[in-house]
# Entry
Amino acid sequence: MNKLLLALTCLLLTGSFSSVRAQYVNPMPRMEDVRRQPIELKGATLSTEALAKDIADAAYWKLGCGWLANEASGVNGVVQLGFDMPGFAKQGDLIWEVRVVLMHTQLRALIWVHSETGKVKFLIAPVTPKADKTKPCT
# Structure
């Protein structure tokens, strides 16, 4: 009965029974099959996500805010810069993008790490000068 109902639903939605056959022929992928593979930049000084994340984490720590218990960082990807940024990078350079998020919902920092020089650029960061220790980072 369930197979018949599934077949009729697929026929109504797609106009074909082929999607029904695909469900039984192709089993659900395993979690390790759908997990994103780490990015690696062949020939770059900072060639792996782990290196870029470590540099970004250290720079975030040096802001003076420390880490909140529910903050986490992760590499979002690699971007190719479309313009010159004096003192950081030039057009065409590859930049690692690292995000610091609060409970996977709120963006706390957006950090770029140059793949060749290891220089760090904060695009978004909690703002509190290190000298003012009376205020928490916001």
Q: What stands out?
A: The CA atoms of residues 18 and 94 lie 43 Å apart.
